[in-house]
Amino acid sequence: MPRDALTFDNDAIAKVLDEIADLLELKGENVFRAVTYRAAARSIRDLREPLAKLAQEKRLKEIPKVGPSVGEAIEQIITTGSSKRHQELKAAVPPGLLTLLRVGGVGPATARTIYDHLRITTIEELEEAARDHRLQQLPKIQAKTEENILRSIAALKQRTGRSLLHEAKAAATVMVEYLRAEAGAERIAIAGSLRRYKETIGDIDIVVAADDAAPIMETFVRAPSIERILARGETKSSVVVDRGLQIDLRVVPLASFGAALLYFTGSKEHNVRLRGLALRRKLLLNEYGLYRVGAEERGQEIVSATEEEVYAALGLAWIPPELREDRGEIDAAQSGALPNLAALADVRGDLHTHTNWTDGRDPLADMARRARAKGYAYLAVTDHSPGLGMTNGLSLERIGARVAEAAKLNEDLAPFRVIVGTEVDIRANGKLDYPDEVLAKFDIVSASVHSSFAQPRDAMTARITGAMRHPLVTAISHPTGRLLEKREPYAVDLDAVIDTAIATGTWIEVNGGPERLDLPDTWIRKAQDRGAMLVVNSDAHAIEELDRMDQGIETARRGWATATSIANTQGLDAVLAARKGRR
Ligand code: DGT
Ligand code: CA
Ligand code: CA
Ligand code: ZN
Question: Where are the beta strands (DSSP E) in 153-235?
Answer without folding.
Answer: 163-164, 187-191, 200-201, 204-209, 226-232
